[in-house]
Design goal:
By secondary structure, this protein is an alpha+beta fold. The protein has one domain. It has seven helices and six strands, in the order βαββαααβαβααβ. Strands 5-1-4-2-3-6 form a six-stranded antiparallel β-sheet, with helices on both faces. The longest helix has 18 residues. The radius of gyration is 15 Å and the shape is globular.
């Protein structure tokens, strides 16, 4: 089991600073690095996904899967309908909490950015405390991922081409 934590900021600079603070927290704790991703929405509504990378190899931390998964959450801003096959509906069908998904997607305004990570070893309380201490008045959301939901989301990640996990992402929102 793990927690999915996303903190939304009014500016991209504040979200990147938060991502650096989370990376420093992981390093100080000596835990296995997790994906940390900054998702920003331009004034035109375009979504950009920036993942944390291993400075030695240039590869995304954690393989990039969870960073891309968090980024995907922002691409389909529609509320999932039971009969829908859209991305948001697939994430809810996988077990992601519908209210969490709706709140996170609706909170990212044009010109804003969010930092997100899946937390296992570091602990939700430590991450939430760090985010609460940051400047920029973040709005923080979290949800618990049970084993079944993690497995279903991992299956969705398995459908993402490997090439998409290893480069910056600049995607049009709907």
């Amino acid at each position: 089991m793990s927690d999915l934590i996303i903190s939304v900021f009014r500016s991209e600079a504040a979200a990147f600073a938060a991502g650096e603070q989370l990376a420093a927290l992981q390093q100080a704790a000596g835990t296995e690095p997790e994906d940390i991703v900054v998702v920003s929405r331009s004034a035109a509504g375009r979504i950009t996904v920036n993942q944390s990378i291993d400075l030695a190899s240039g590869a995304p931390l954690g393989g990039g899967g969870w960073g891309v998964m968090i980024g995907l959450m922002f691409l389909d801003g529609r509320k999932p309908k039971p009969e829908s096959q859209g991305l948001a509906a697939q994430l809810v069908a996988a077990g992601l909490d519908r209210t969490f998904l709706d709140d996170v997607v609706q909170s990212l305004k044009k010109g804003g950015a969010a930092v997100g990570m899946r937390v296992r070893l570091l602990g939700k309380e430590r991450v939430m405390a760090k985010l609460d201490s940051l400047q920029g008045s973040p709005r923080t959301y979290w949800t618990r991922l049970d084993a079944r939901t993690e497995e279903a989301l991992t299956d969705i990640m398995g459908q993402i081409p490997q090439a998409a996990l290893s480069r910056p992402h600049d995607l049009p929102a709907d």
